[in-house]
From TrEMBL:
Residues 59-124 form the Carboxymuconolactone decarboxylase-like domain. Gene3D superfamilies: AhpD-like. GO terms for molecular function: peroxiredoxin activity. This is Transposase. It comes from Amycolatopsis taiwanensis. Coiled coil: none annotated. SUPFAM superfamilies: AhpD-like. PANTHER family: 4-CARBOXYMUCONOLACTONE DECARBOXYLASE FAMILY PROTEIN (AFU_ORTHOLOGUE AFUA_6G11590) (PTHR34846), CYTOPLASMIC PROTEIN (PTHR34846:SF10).
Amino acid sequence: MPRLPQVPLEKAGILGKFAYRYARKRYGAVPEPFAVAAHHPGVFRASAVHELLVEKGSRVLPHNVREIAVYRVAVRLGCSWCVDFGTMLQKHQGLDIDRLKHIDDYATSPVFTRQERLALAYADAMTSSPVTVTDEQVAELEGEFGAAGVVELTYQIAVENSRSRMYSALGIVDQGFTSGDACRVPMPTTQTHEKPA
């Protein structure tokens, strides 16, 4: 249970109600971070707009590279909500979620591509405290993804660091978007009606 109560739909205000309905339609349930952030409408609005813009703007990297790097941050920081939700997103994008159990062995595991290994190592270096990114590492990433790809990857990793730390601090834990290897939530394209909150 989160350290702050979730704001129920009837008390979420106009923006909150719209966001809850959108999230329920898209993901099958209202993500708990939404319902907790709704205590502060200004921050909630800024966060929702930011997340949509980041999603729309992130089009340079292959989605498997972007998603695996973000997932790695969640694992490193122990954000069970982010791991749960990230697994669901990867499944919905048609990515192999079975390989996620090998994430700690990414440097040697054959289930990860060279590009993914580079992104995972970068996620580790950025998530370390202090940050351990090197000039050589950025140069190698630029050679692989270009400058725009490095900026996108860096931003995505930084945003996930923020999410994971915030959700962990607020006691937001896995919500049941995944269960073992299978999603409990149906693919968004097969969703025919909204589920109750």
